[in-house]
Amino acid sequence: MDRIVSYTRGGKPWTPKFLESIDFERCIGCGRCYKVCGRGVLELIDKPFEGEDEYGDDMGNKVMSVANPDDCIGCGACARVCTRRCHVHVEM
After folding, report:
1. Partner of 14 at 20 to 30 A CA spacing, among 4, 58, 68, 74?
2. CA–CA separation, 20 vs 17, rounded Å?
3. How far does CA 46 lie from the centroid of its chain?
4. Could you give the CA distance from residue 7 to residue 60 in angstroms, rounded to a whole number?
5. pLDDT tens digit string along 29-66?
6. What are the two backbone dihedrals, phi and then psi, of residue 91, each rounded to the nearest 5 degrees?
7. What is the DSSP letter of 54?
8. Could you say which DSSP state residue 28 is in?
9. Contact 13, 5 (CB under 8 A)
10. Could you give phi then psi for residue 65, rounded to 5 degrees?
11. Distances (CA, A) of 6 to 39, 57, 76, 88
12. Distance from C-alpha of 61 to C-alpha of 31, rounded to nearest angstrom
């Protein structure tokens, strides 16, 4: 597959980076990425593990997951709002 390259409004080249996965151990299920994604790519799920985070706090029982990866347009908005830096993006 060829690398996807687009252009900004100003004519500069831009390469989208598509959401590949979310690090469940870092995610706290705050929902910021869910709220900023207008494409329905993300979904809040029960966390696949139990325990406390590195600060010793119970993180709750939900984390974000990639529900519809084919709907991602590679804008990166989810990663920009994430305070935990748990999103993994890749170029295609």
Report:
1. 68
2. 9
3. 16
4. 41
5. 999 999 999 999 999 998 876 655 555 555 568 899 99
6. -80, 150
7. T
8. -
9. yes
10. -140, 165
11. 19, 42, 14, 21
12. 13
CA–CA separation, 39 and 37 (whole Å): 6
8 A C-beta contact, residue 77 and residue 36: yes
Q: Is the alpha carbon torsion for 80, 68, 37, 6 positive or negative?
A: positive
Q: Which two tokens stand for residue 25?
A: 């151990």
pTM attached to this predicted model = 0.78
Give the Cα separation of 86 and 74 in Å (integer): 16
Cβ burial, residue 1 (10 Å; 0-12/13-18/19+): exposed
Q: In this structure, how many other beta carbons lie within 10 angstroms of the beta carbon of residue 4?
A: 13
Residue range 6-91, CATH number: 3.30.70.20
Tokens of 56: 């010793």
Q: How far apart are CA 22 and CA 27, in angstroms?
A: 7
